[in-house]
Amino acid sequence: MAEHEYRIVLPLQDNSGQPIRTEVIEALAARMSGWFGGVTVYPAAGCYEADQMLQCEPNVVLAAATLENGPEEYRHSEAANRAFMAQLAEDVGREFGQQEVWHEEATEDVSEWVRGTRQEHLPGYMLDLRLPRIPRDEAFRAILPGRWRAS
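Below the sequence we write its predicted structure tokens.
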């Protein structure tokens, strides 16, 4: 099985502009992580042309990669992965009241994991010491500063 990346774009607001609860997004990230063994969450803007103006809305992308040598419990066939993502997109469309939900599968011949060197602390010139440290269990809420509220 080749390495693939699967992505789905989720809105952060409903169609009336009301913010979607953090727990709802977290549950979808957990569902994807449970299937693939991990998930990366990052902010995005969904933009489209309306009334001859560019309209943009806040979104979040959930992305997961399959690994040929990953843990056995996360190795599914490409067909099973596609079916999982199609069902996830269908569920999001229904639950979020979306006309369409974007998801994709990407394969790249030149993608790889490159080994680095773990450091507990980065050099001072790379850090913004004016900002507070983010506890690991709060990292999900930190991807969009000011967007999430503590539960």
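The longest strand covers residues 53-65.
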